[in-house]
Amino acid sequence: MAADRTNAAGEAGTGPDPARAADPDARPLVSTPYGVVRGRYEHAVAVFRGIPFAAPPFGVRRFRPPAPPDPWNGVRDAGSFGPTPPKPPYSDAFARYLSDPVVPGDDCLNLNVWTPEPGPGARLPVVVWLHGGALTRGSSATPVYDGRHFARDGIVFVSINYRLGVEGYGLFPDAPANLGLRDQLAALAWVHRSIRAFGGDPDRITLAGQSAGAISVGGLIAAPQAQGLFRRAVLQSGPPEALERDKVRRMVRRMAARLKIPATAEAFAAVDRDLLLRTQAEIGRLSSPVLGGPAFGIVVDGDLVPRDPLSALLDGDVAVGADLLMGWTRDEYRLWLVPGGLLERVDRLGAVALAGAMARCHCGPEVPRGYRALHPEAGPAEIVGQMVTDSLLRRPLRRLADARSGTSYMYEFAWPSRRPGLGACHALELGFVFDTGETPESAKLAGDGAPQELADAMHGAWTRFAATGDPGWEAWNATHPVRIFGESDGESGPQEHHRMLSGDDAVLSGADAEPSGTGGWSYTAHGVRDRELALWVTPSPQAALPEVADDGTSTADPSSAGFSARGTELRSAVRRLRRATGGTRER
C-alpha cells in the first residue's frame, strides 16, 4: 500500500516521509524522561525498540513493584528488541502453530514504538498493545505484532513486555500481588508521559490486547490508578476478570512442593531461573481454558485491583466514557483442543466431556441439552468448546457491552484457518488485525494464502477505532449488532452461515448486508449467538456447584446447596477429562 495513503480517520493527516526514510543512514533521535534514544527508519516509518520503562526486575527488585529505570548519558541505541521476560517454551504441539522468540537479558521491562512522525507536533492517536500467552508466555518481539502498518496508517503504535508466570503473577505472603499488571501500568504511565515526543497524543491512547492481554486490558481500565491514562480499549478474546486467590495460591504451593521450598517470594527468588520455569510448566501442564485447573492470573488485591474488574466496569465506576471494541473468534476452543489430538479425545469421551463442561461452567444439564437442540450436527467437543467459550468469554463481554451501550462495538472473527482442524480459532485474527499475514509466524497459524482483503477490512476497522472511536459499524444497542469478519460473498454467504451459528433469530442488517470497500469480507448481523447465550439466563439448580480444583477436590461445605451426589459426579468427570486429554494452558 502507498505510504501517502489517508489515515484511519479518512483524512490526509501527517504520514511517513518516504524521502527521509529511504536514506539508509537516517537515524531518528527522541528524548525520553531517562535519556535520548536512537531508532531506525524501516518501511517508511520510524521504529524504536527495547526502550526501558522500568528497571530490571531482578536482584533486590525481584518480586517487587516496578521501579524507574536508571537514566543514561549520551544516546541509547534502540535498533533491536530488548530482552524478553523469563518464560517456558511452548510445548511441541503448540510450537507448530505459535511463535515465541526469546531475547536473553535481565532488562526485560521494555517497550517498542512505531511512529510515522517522531516529533511533538504530530499529535497522532496511540495504540498500546498487551500481548497474550496465558500470562506465562509471549512477548512484544513476536513478529506478528509488528506495528509498522499501524504507523503507516497514522497511528503511533507501542508494544510492551511485562513479567510473566510466577515472576509476574505468583501470590506470596511476602510480596505484592499482580506484579505483571503493575508492570503494564508503569508502561502505560510512561507512554502517557513520553509519547508526545514520538508524535503521539497522550489524550488519545487506546489500550489494546488479545487473550491474556485483553484480560490485562480489563484489569487496567478498571484500576483506579489507570484512570485518565487511556481513552479507548480493545479486548480481543479475553474478558475483564479476577481469579480466585486460592486458585493462584494452589499453583504457587504446588511449585513449592515440587521444589521442596517454602511458598514465599524469598524462597522462590533463590531458585535457579531455568529450574523455576521448568517446574512452572510441569505444574501447569494439565490446566487449560477448557478444563480449568491451577493457573496464574489477576487477583483482587485491595490496591491496584480493589474489586473484580468486570463488576467495577458494569457498575460504571471506572472507564467512564471510554469507547470499547470487543469480540471473539468463532472457534476459540480449537486452538486449545486441536494440538496433540485433544479434539478427537474429547469427542470420544462424550458424556464425560459434557459433564466436565457442566462442572467447569457451573451449570446444569439443561445448558448442554439446549446446545444440542440448537446444533444437532455438533459433536461433544464442539459443544463443550462453545459452552466454555460462551460461559467464560462471550457472556462477560456481552454483559459489558450491555452496560456500555452506545459506546461499545462487538465483532466476531469467522474466517477458518487453512491449517487442518483449526477453524476460526483463538489468536487467528491477530495476523489480520496487524496486517502481518505475510510473515512466516502468522502463516504457522493461518496457513498459506490468507486473504489480504480480510486484513484490509479488519486492520482498517482497528485503526479507525483508535483514531475516532468508531470502527465503522453500528454501536451496541438493543438489536445486538455484531460485525462478522472473514466471510466472502463468494463462499456460503453471510445469511446462510449466520443461521448455522445462531438460528433463525440472527439477521443481517439491511444496509450492511452488502459490504462496500472490503471485498465482501465483513458485514453486520444482529442477534449473533443470542439463542445460545439465552440458555444461561435462567439460574440452574446446579449453578452453585463449587469450583473444581485441579485434583478434583473442593473446599465447599458438603451440606451446601451446590454440593450433591451430582456435584461429586461432575468433579469426577473433570478429573477423568483432564487425565484423558492431558491438556495444557498454552494461550
UniProtKB/TrEMBL annotation:
Family matches, as InterPro entries: AB_hydrolase_fold, AChE-related_enzymes, CarbesteraseB, Carboxylesterase_B_AS
Comp. bias intervals (Polar residues): 552-562
Region named Disordered: 1-29, 542-587
Keyword field: Hydrolase
Any one Pfam family match given in the protein's UniProt record, by short name: COesterase
Superkingdom of origin: Bacteria
Family: Belongs to the type-B carboxylesterase/lipase family.
Protein name (record): Carboxylic ester hydrolase
Annotated source species: Streptomyces achromogenes
